[in-house]
Structure of Lipocalin domain-containing protein:
Amino acid sequence: MKLFLAVLAVQSVAAIGENAMDLQTITGIIGGIGNMLGSTVETVNVPAKLLMGKWHQMYKAAINFDVFRTQMFCQVAYFKENSVMGADGFSIEEAYRVVSKNGPIETYKRDMNKVGSGQYWMYTEEYFYPRQFYIIHTGPGYDNETLTTMAPEGLQYLVISDANRLSLMVFARDPVAFYQKYNEEVNTYLKKKGFGGNVFWNSPKPIYQGQDCEWPTEKEVFARRVLKNQEQNEKSKSSTEKSIISDSPFADFIKNPKKILDQLAKQ
């Protein structure tokens, strides 16, 4: 691994230009990758009952943003118990606006299967494979031994990543309270744990959560998901029917009836 990183550093410097700034930048990137791969992620064991309810995503890793949608707006997520996913399993039904803070609303459902202390496999509608959902930090005042929080208002923020710290999601109960009380604390933690800096792809990128946001209710998110699934099923059904018709003799007749009649007359 060290040899590979050394070769990569030499090749990168030669490509960018051999000056002090380039060398420093590349060294920082290589060092950041080495730290990520060489250290394990400590997770926080949080009982599912403390996670339930309404959350807002405040930050997302740069690499998680869609290439064509570099920003999302006014995200809201509802954490709900789901016994189908096993002990401490739960689901997240989320919605957010695209294009602008007043743009169209998109919805997704994510199902969580607990596989370890603070560790889940996340199954989502937008991917065909599960992803890691690791709770690596929460607060304020959460005790990982007693599994309780000293704050009377309960947990107010969650920091989610994966085993290699490539992804990042930061959730808050209340956006305004988060910015006023916990934003600095969370960003200090993220910087200390290697999020951002020269390793740009896991840099915390803020999600717009202004006071002018209009977040859909839990019932509205559910209704939108049902409608979305119905529309997708109809499109799939229509596509299948078209495929069946297009491969049939009847389709040939519709396209060129004279040709088919001439062929039948010759038989």
The chain has six helices and eleven strands. Confidence is low (pLDDT under 50) at residues 1-33.
